[in-house]
Amino acid sequence: MINIKIELYGRLIGLFGQDHIFWQTQANSTMKALYQSLCQTHQVDDSIKGIKPVINDTFVDWNNEFQSGDVLGFLPPASGG
Predict the structure, then answer these.
(1) Which residues, in sequence order, are bridge partners of residue 55?
(2) 2-8/71-75 β-pairing
(3) Which of 12, 42, 48, 63 has the maximal Cβ count within 10 Å?
(4) Greatest pairwise CA separation for the chain in angstroms
(5) What separation, in Å, do the N-terminal and C-terminal C-alpha atoms of the chain show?
(6) What is the pLDDT of residue 79?
């Protein structure tokens, strides 16, 4: 098991009720698997449409893996004017 910090932005803060989550997960997990697990635990729709995954302040692909100590993030599309 590895420990990570997940940062949430925009509308995801409202959906998850917080702007960051400390999470323990299996090593060699992908960003997509992590997001789906997070959504399932918090009973949130797991659609990744428009959401950008981030590892250590860098946009990555949903199939990227992360390591213990990484800071992960999920950035939804911005709206407003």
Answers:
(1) 58, 72
(2) parallel
(3) 12
(4) 42
(5) 42
(6) 67
